[in-house]
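TA notes. Do not distribute before section.
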Amino acid sequence: MKSQRAGERVKDSVTRFLTRKLKLVVNEQKSRVVKTNDAKFLGFNFRGTKLPWSDRAFGDFQHQVRKLTGRSWGVSMAYRFHKLAQYVRGWMGYFGISDYYRAIPEFDHWLRRRVRMCYWKQRRYARTKVKYLLSFGTSKRQTILTALSSKSYWHLSRTLATQIGMTNQWLQAQGLLSIRELWMKAHGYA
């Protein structure tokens, strides 16, 4: 209770200074006095000397990437990669200063899987799926089993045949950015 009253006194003092001396308007609904570990500001949390992005900011990022890699979005893959690159570069340009690395490799894998799902959805019939994967040099048995499977596009985007066919290097050559590489570059590792 004492800390709450002390926080209110500090807030009143700062508000008085901002309104009287600096002639600024203070929005009371958005203003609060809290410890730095409880503060969220412009999409970041403050954890001691660490600066991770907030869960909401990362959730918004995932939602937007889901929209850009939706398998029913009827655009060319070149246009999809262009829009995805714009968004990912912008997000990493802002949130790349974050110290939080743990989610980056996992999210990079998730993004590649989403793109494989889009490529897989483009091939409508089993015979075109077989031709497509065989052109990459995957084994005939794995290709046929994957092409004839009735499982979802999302499930099939992680099979051995699609991962051997559409390798990470091939996806990068198509224009897919690596979130991990962008993060490493932002922190001076690459």
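Switch to the second chain here.
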Amino acid sequence: MATHFKGSQQQQLALNGYVALLRCAETVTSDVARHLSAEALTVGQFGVLEALYHLGPLCQRDIGKKLLKSGGNMTTVIDNLVKRDLVERHPDPDDRRYWQVDLTTDGHELIADLFPVHVERIVARLAVLSSKEQDQLRRLCRKLGRAEAGTRPAD
């Protein structure tokens, strides 16, 4: 759906692209993550479990950076995972100001079961794009994500 905004051609093009990007991301994420509701997990909780599964114990700040989430949001997400006995916090042996977050046995088993299903859902959802298009999508998203606000890279 095109925007109804009556700005310049450049403004309309950018706004239409932005709206399409957001709608696409929301639709794909909702579809891919639908199976998480059966485990009463949010996308954020799954992200924490997945990061710990692949990277090992991390401090909460590093998890937030990895998932692009605020400290307050990470505290809530991790608190809820602790309540479910899926993760635990331990004092960082090198710096007492930080706490390491790690998977519990239950958390490890859950993410080990869920992650392959998640990957298959992503593969199925992106199958509408060719391999070349998937790579192009990755490169374009990376370019857009790394660009500084207000700059316009050369085409």
